[in-house]
RNA sequence: CGCGGGGUGGAGCAGCCUGGUAGCUCGCGAGGCUCAUAACCUCGAGGUCCCCGGUUCAAAUCCGGGCCCCGCACCCA
């Protein structure tokens, strides 16, 4: 679920950028190497290759289903697209003197098949296997991260690299103050074989960092004959990651880029974790929520809306079926869906056309102008939940107007209804990055002339479209259909 | 003294940085409306803002101390 939230957050943001007329490249990917993959494959009686191919299938079909509008999907096991960049980067880091081979000595538990720290031991024994770990030495390549401590401190302090939310930046800075450790960059092939071989050193396999982090630039073909540097050098780079891998993205990765002579990213957006009914999701507790299940029951947009609306960027959030159903019912169904329905029904029944001269200035018109302003402001600061709230505020406002003016038997009913339709048109546009399919359905029902094309990548919400009455060739509304039906 | 997050009406949260009538969603109670997906609108009940001390004219908000919960293995993502 956390995984899904990350993709949805990124997708919402990307869609907003595209709708603003920006050129965007949206890359996602999977890290497919490592000993865990080897082990899992063994357990399931398949080769690592078969396992990762199966996993990628699962991911891509899930992303497609969720409407994640990525441009590039990078697989770290792709020898054609990913490996060349990684190998070239490794050599650059090595030639710059940042990679050194050292002997690592640690306490190895053969049960866990990994090194344990002293702190993990209970009475000198591995808590899981109740046996004493043995002291094992192995050769590792190390990345001399310590050398870049000052560079990184500056980078974060003057926000050349901005971390959102800023509290995480403090966290990373305090890590820096306490002193960095050099990072292990490889494993002997004898212990991990499923990975990218270290260039010019046959006995070693790359550890995750040089391999996986590099996906950001391997997706652009860096260090190959088909480099697309403009997407990095002249672009604003935003990484969207989980807080658990903060230090690697905020410290190790910028250092690697600097060493290779590539500019560092502008922003890192760190999201929190999702709990389930207040507890960490775990198999043993049986409270794991499968996003597919949610989508099957409520639809993609309901999930996208819930995550955007309920979980402020950067915070941890909670998923509970009860809350989900409440939000779906009340916000999407009763407030938004019902507003659409009541307005369109009145339009159709009264055989009313959209007024070519939208009355203004009115309270409604002023409200919407203000909401658009707040809306984009919140997007700029990655406050996605606040942004979506702006659209919902208009919904509430319309529902109030409808009631207080008893529009259904008001003498200026036609005018009011035109205003509501226009408001709904704006609401749909605002919701477009969040719940694209539903926003399009709304627009189609409203009869907005651009509705058909609004899911295209080059669709832009122009100034005119954002203006009150700015959609001039719009005359009729269509038939209302229930957007968010009740779900048991 | 490992690090971090948190403790606000029944539930989930915002507010804290930049002190000054405690706000939102859901639920609950009463009333209204009837165009609409029994939806919508209005009003209301309900809170020692974890505890103790300090600063201040004034503290949920700042400072000090204490208590409690949750992450930082793996699984899951």
Description:
- The chain has 488 residues and is α/β, with parallel strands linked by helices.
- It has 18 helices and 14 strands.
- The chain has a 4-stranded antiparallel β-sheet with strand order 4-3-5-7.
- The chain binds one RNA strand of 77 nucleotides through helix 1, helix 6, strand 13, helix 13 and helix 15.
Short structural summary:
With 488 residues, the chain is of the alpha/beta class. It is built from 18 helices and 14 strands.
Query: How many runs of DSSP E, i.e. beta strands?
Result: 14
- Proportion of residues in helical segments: 40-55%
Strand content: 5-15%
| Poorly predicted tracts of residues | none
Decide which structural class fits the backbone. alpha/beta
**What is the count of DSSP helices, taking H or I runs of 4+ residues?**
18
The first-to-last residue Cα distance is 22 Å
Topology:
Blueprint: H1 2-19, E1 27-30, H2 35-43, H3 48-66, E2 72-75, H4 83-95, E3 99-109, E4 114-116, E5 134-143, H5 149-157, E6 162-164, H6 166-177, E7 183-184, E8 186-188, E9 204-206, H7 208-213, H8 215-218, H9 230-233, E10 238-242, H10 246-259, E11 267-271, E12 274-276, E13 279-280, H11 291-298, H12 300-310, E14 317-319, H13 321-349, H14 363-380, H15 384-404, H16 413-431, H17 436-446, H18 463-466
Parallel strand pairs: 1-2, 6-11, 10-11, 12-14
Antiparallel strand pairs: 3-4, 3-5, 5-7, 8-9, 12-13
The structure holds one RNA strand of 77 nucleotides.
């Amino acid at each position: 679920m956390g995984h899904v939230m990350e993709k949805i957050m990124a997708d919402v943001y990307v869609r907003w950028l595209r709708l603003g007329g920006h050129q965007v490249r949206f890359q996602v990917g999977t890290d497919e190497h490592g000993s865990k993959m080897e082990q899992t494959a063994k357990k399931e009686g398949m080769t690592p290759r078969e396992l990762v191919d199966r996993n990628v299938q699962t991911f891509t079909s899930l992303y497609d289903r969720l409407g994640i509008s990525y441009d590039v999907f990078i697989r770290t096991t792709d020898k054609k697209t990913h490996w060349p960049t990684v190998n070239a980067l490794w050599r650059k880091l090595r030639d710059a003197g940042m990679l050194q081979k050292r002997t690592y000595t640690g306490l190895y538990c053969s049960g866990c098949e990994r090194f344990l720290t002293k702190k993990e031991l209970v009475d000198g024994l591995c808590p899981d296997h109740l046996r004493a770990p043995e002291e094992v030495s192995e050769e590792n390549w190390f990345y001399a991260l310590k050398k870049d401590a000052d560079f990184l401190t500056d980078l974060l302090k003057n926000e050349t690299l901005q971390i959102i939310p800023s509290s995480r930046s403090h966290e990373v800075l305090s890590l820096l103050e306490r002193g960095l450790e050099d990072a292990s960059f490889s494993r002997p092939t004898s212990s991990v074989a499923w990975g990218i071989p270290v260039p010019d050193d046959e006995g070693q396999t790359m550890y995750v960092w040089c391999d996986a982090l590099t996906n950001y630039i391997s997706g652009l073909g860096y260090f190959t004959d088909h480099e697309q540097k403009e997407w990095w050098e002249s672009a604003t780079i935003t990484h969207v990651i989980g807080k658990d891998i903060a230090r690697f993205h905020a410290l190790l990765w910028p250092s690697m880029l600097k060493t290779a002579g590539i500019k560092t990213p502008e922003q890192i957006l760190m999201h929190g974790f999702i709990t389930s009914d207040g507890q960490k999701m775990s198999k043993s507790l049986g409270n794991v929520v499968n996003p597919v299940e949610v989508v099957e029951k409520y639809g993609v947009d309901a999930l996208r809306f819930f995550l955007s609306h309920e979980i402020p960027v950067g915070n941890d959030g909670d998923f509970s079926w009860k809350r989900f159903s409440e939000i779906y019912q009340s916000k999407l169904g009763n407030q938004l869906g019902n507003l659409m329905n009541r307005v369109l029904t009145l339009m159709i029944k009264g055989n009313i056309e959209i007024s070519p001269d939208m009355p203004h200035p009115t309270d409604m018109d002023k409200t919407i102008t203000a909401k658009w302003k707040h809306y984009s402001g919140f997007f700029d600061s990655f406050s996605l939940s606040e942004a979506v709230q702006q659209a919902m505020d208009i919904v509430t406002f319309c529902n109030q107007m409808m009631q207080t003016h008893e529009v259904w038997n008001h003498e200026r009913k036609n005018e009011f209804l035109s205003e509501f339709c226009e408001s709904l048109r704006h609401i749909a546009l605002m919701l477009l990055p969040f719940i694209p399919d539903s926003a399009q359905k709304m627009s189609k029902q409203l009869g907005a002339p651009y509705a058909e094309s609004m899911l295209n990548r080059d669709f832009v919400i122009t100034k005119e479209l954002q203006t009150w009455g700015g959609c001039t060739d719009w005359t009729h509304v269509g038939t209302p259909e229930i957007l968010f039906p009740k779900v048991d």
